[in-house]
Amino acid sequence: MERISHELDPVYDENSRILILGTFPSVKSRQQRFYYGNPQNRFWKVTAALTGWEIPETIEEKKRMLLANGIAIWDVIASCEIKGSSDSSIRNVIANDIAGLLAGSRIRTIYANGDKAYRLYQRYCEESTGMAAIRLPSTSPANAAWSLERLVEAWRGIDRWDKEA
Predict the structure, then answer these.
(1) What's the chain look like in SS3?
(2) Who contacts 98 (Cβ-Cβ below 8 Å, separation ≥6)?
(3) Residue 98 is part of which domain span?
(4) Is residue 143 domain-resident?
(5) 163 part of a folded domain
(6) Of 118, 150, 127, which Cα lies nearest the Cα of 22?
(7) Residue 106, phi then psi, degrees to nearest 5
(8) Catalytic, out of 15, 38, 41, 113
(9) pLDDT tens for each residue of the chain, 165 residues long
(10) How far apart are CA 142 and CA 121, in angstroms?
């Protein structure tokens, strides 16, 4: 186990309407210095399918797709003890200031990418934000029971990205 601090800034702007929260960057994401860096993680494929965009390859393309569709991303955890990329090994959590991010934005809905992100958000952030999160199945390769098609269908409820509200 090693104590690691989150070094990635949240991706959002004044037009972001939804926030998708992960737990903590994987080893590959930390190496690439951007979210969902493991090529086996289906996050970019799912969000591209829902937004109608091509699957982004570069960090700039990923940011552009997110921001053009009112999507913000961040992680629940600011620092923790973790073994590699294993969410199940996470201990001694310090949460990110999700309430501060929300206060400076137009975000109205929070989604958690997976059960662990959902439970961590409930435990460490929900009281300060006053907003419940909606749990989505994880796009992580560890969630191998879910095919890409099944993930896209499960995430389909947010494909409107709250534009009509």
Answers:
(1) CEEEECCCCCECCCCCCEEEEECCCCHHHHHHCCCCCCCCCCHHHHHHHHHCCCCCCCHHHHHHHHHHCCEEEEECEEEEEECCCCHHHCEEEEECCHHHHHHCCCCCEEEEECHHHHHHHHHHCHHHHCCCEEEECCCCCCCCCCCHHHHHHHHHHHCCCCCCC
(2) 19, 21, 74, 76, 110, 121, 125, 128, 129
(3) 2-158
(4) yes
(5) no
(6) 118
(7) -105, 15
(8) 41
(9) 889 999 999 999 999 999 999 999 999 999 999 999 999 999 999 999 999 999 999 999 999 999 999 999 999 999 999 998 888 899 999 999 999 999 989 999 999 999 999 999 999 999 999 999 999 999 999 999 999 999 999 999 775 545 444
(10) 20
User: For the chain, how far is it from start to end, CA to CA, in angstroms?
Assistant: 44
Number of domains in the chain: 1
Evaluate the CA torsion angle 25, 30, 33, 39 in order and state its sign: negative
Whether 120 is covered by a domain: the verdict is: yes
User: Is 92 a residue of the active site?
Assistant: no
What are 4's strand-pairing partners? 80
- CATH number for the domain that contains residue 28: 3.40.470.10
Residue at 117 is within a domain: yes
What's phi and psi for 75, nearest 5 deg?
Answer: -125, 155
